[in-house]
Design a protein that fits this description.
eight-stranded antiparallel sheet, 23% strand, globular, disordered N terminus
């Protein structure tokens, strides 16, 4: 561990006032940790808010890992967090002043050592029974995976590239129309699968799939994926009806720091990123395709891209992707145009996956994309390896 216990860190722990939970997040889901005793609260400045239970558990995971990558992951998730000062102090202690580079033959500076690599891992999925693979598994797209229980299975389309399973978690979503909320409620089981693609140590893209994982019939589905126009400005949006009973929505918009969302799936994804030693920075562009039928369920695939990976730090802010700002910047306008073009192909694949009509066997962890089952044209052949920027 990079930071040994000291009076200041003990005071901050005492100040948290949050009883430790009985189980840790998925970053250490394979290890049982006894809950720490609740401590009496010590004085601290009133201006700093109490940390939430999720942040406290994230910090405990960070301390147990005790690596620079873990502290960077905490600062990425909670840049103004309760323990941010401790994380920065730990990083400062772990980064001593650099000595002059040793000279090679003829006085030439020696080549730098190898760049850091992701610390790949595998852990069972504990928050859902709707998949058969593990957290940390790697899949090479294009291809499909199957999610859902019997009677509600769906395919999800994995784009080209190597993708790592970061989270799979189920949640209860209330689908009862407001005027009918009493005396009964309609609650759907919605599973969220998160895959990540990396550029070096940084999360460059994520695929977030949301699907009703058990059979259910509802009058109408809520906008689970956030496809409809709302608080954030929309760069592209369409509502369509692929068939008489099926509705669909597609959109492209900027989303402020989606990795920090307080949902079970994103909490698990943050813990997986910490285990990998990866970092994620800034806001993202969301490219969304959703389809649903009242009596057959819901499926959405959302691609999240962090454009700052390719376009620089200025592109990491959601404000840089308002329609007005995009119109003034040819590079950003070209990025949005490529996303909309990619969405034109992906929306058709999501509609086919909803009906389990893509003629592919599921991807295997670590293996290449399998061929289609039939001799017909490959439905995934037109899906580009999109890297915005």
């Amino acid at each position: 561990m990079l930071v040994s216990p000291c009076p200041r860190s003990l005071a901050l722990r005492l100040a948290s006032g949050v009883a430790a939970v009985a189980a840790v997040v998925a970053a250490v889901a394979v290890v049982d940790v006894a809950p720490a005793q609740a401590q009496s609260e010590a004085p601290r400045p009133a201006a700093q808010a109490q940390p939430g239970a999720v942040e406290v558990e994230f910090w405990r995971t960070t301390e147990r890992l005790g690596t620079p990558e873990a502290y960077h992951a905490y600062l990425s998730a909670y840049p103004g967090g309760f323990f941010a000062a401790l994380a920065r102090a730990a990083l400062a202690k772990a980064s001593p002043a650099r000595a002059p580079a040793p000279a090679g033959d003829g006085g030439t500076p020696a080549l730098p050592g190898p760049s850091p690599a992701l610390r790949h891992f595998a852990a069972p999925v504990t928050r859902s029974g709707a998949v058969t693979f593990n957290l940390g598994d790697r899949f090479n797209g294009p291809g499909v995976l199957t999610v859902g229980w019997a009677g509600a299975k769906r395919q999800v389309v994995v784009p080209p590239g190597e993708w790592v399973v970061l989270a799979m978690a189920d949640a209860k979503v209330d689908m009862t129309p407001p005027m009918y909320r009493f005396p009964t409620r309609v609650v759907a089981d919605v599973g969220t699968l998160v895959l990540g693609r990396f550029s070096g140590m940084r999360l460059a893209s994520a695929m977030v799939y949301q699907s009703s994982v058990r059979p259910i019939s509802v009058d109408d589905w809520n906008d689970i994926a956030g496809c409809q126009p709302g608080a954030s400005e929309t760069l592209h949006h369409e509502n369509t009806r692929p068939s008489g009973l099926r509705s669909a929505c597609v959109a492209v918009r900027a989303v402020p720091a989606p990795q920090n969302a307080a949902t079970p799936a994103m909490e698990e994804a943050r813990a997986s990123l910490a285990r990998l030693g990866a970092e994620v920075q800034g806001d993202a562009l969301a490219t969304i395709a959703a389809v649903w039928e009242s009596r057959r369920g819901y499926l959405a695939g959302t691609r999240l891209d962090w454009p700052g990976v390719a376009l620089g730090a200025a592109a990491d802010a959601a404000g840089a992707w308002s329609p007005a700002m995009v119109a003034l910047d040819p590079g950003r306008a070209a990025t949005v145009a490529r996303l909309v073009e990619w969405l034109g192909t992906y929306r058709n694949l999501v509609d086919a996956a909803y009906g389990f009509r893509i003629d592919r066997v599921d991807l295997e962890p670590g293996a290449g994309a399998p061929a289609g089952r039939s001799g017909s044209g490959d439905p995934l052949g037109n899906l580009r390896d999109l890297q915005p920027g």
